[in-house]
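Hey, I was hoping to borrow your eyes for a little while. I've dropped the whole record in just underneath, so have a look:

——
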Amino acid sequence: MSDEKDLQQLKKEAAERAKQLAKERLAAKKAAEQAEQSLEAHNDEDELALAKKKAAAAAKAKAAALAKQKAQESNGELSEEELAKKKAAAAAKAKAAALAKQKAQESNGELSEEELAKKKAAAAAKAKAAALAKQKAQESNGELSEEELAKKKAAAAAKAKAAALAKAKTTKAADGAEEVKDEKPSPNQPYLDKYVKVIEEHLGKDVLENAYINKLSKDVPTLVAKKDTYYKVAQFLKYNEQLGFDYLSELHGTDFQTHMEVYVHLYSYKNNQSVALKVKIDRDDPVIDSLVPLWPGANWPECEAYDLLGIRFKGHPNLIRIFLGENWVGYPLRKDYEPYDMGV
């Protein structure tokens, strides 16, 4: 029984000691916090005091600078920057004074020569604008004085003359550019020279009407034969050993209203060269020799030219209308063609 009492007594004493120890620890913690707060307050007071000292020093320095500046002004001594500032202020003050003077002069009717000239120029511009407005109003109402009408006619004539001169210059420049361009020899010129030389040597110089390089058709050498030498030239182009144009690739007719023309394009496989043969024929009686005996490939193209243009080819084995039929009235590719039946 006494042992249980001793154990409880020990527990009670241990609890009291733990409680006392906790109180001591709490008191020590509070004391430490108070000490830290006191230290921080002391530091804040030091920083505040330091900031006050700095502010006082800055104010003192500024006051000293102001005192120095006033002393310099009283002695007539200024730095360059201060002098520039003073000059700028003086200029602004002078400009304001000039503006005030100008306003006073305008109110009193007094102006300088320069200002008077400016006012006159403004008045002239205003008068010109009013005159233009009046002219436009008169034009809209169809009312113009003889003098104004003459002025307008003269201005229109001058404008037309200037436009004509500009156009003439442009045309001249274009013609000059074309001449310069034409001066450049065609790569096919040697072939044309060869064809003409061989033809004239064998057939004479009077069988060709013209010979040229066709710039509009890939620089093809072009021969223009006379009507009565057309077949002879074509035959020579095919059978001459130096030429040998054994293939007819194209044949067609064209109505130029003043005359008709047959165009033939030939090719030489042996020489890998091309030539164009043309002939002009009478539009009222369009008859020319057929080339079918030389190149059978001319058969259908000659029929087509007959069908659409009415060109008749002498010596053609079977010249018929291949598109429109023999009963068709007229030739549709002629420039003066009028349909027989407008509903067709």
About this structure: Helices lie at 2-75, 80-108, 113-141, 146-183, 189-203, 230-239, 299-309.
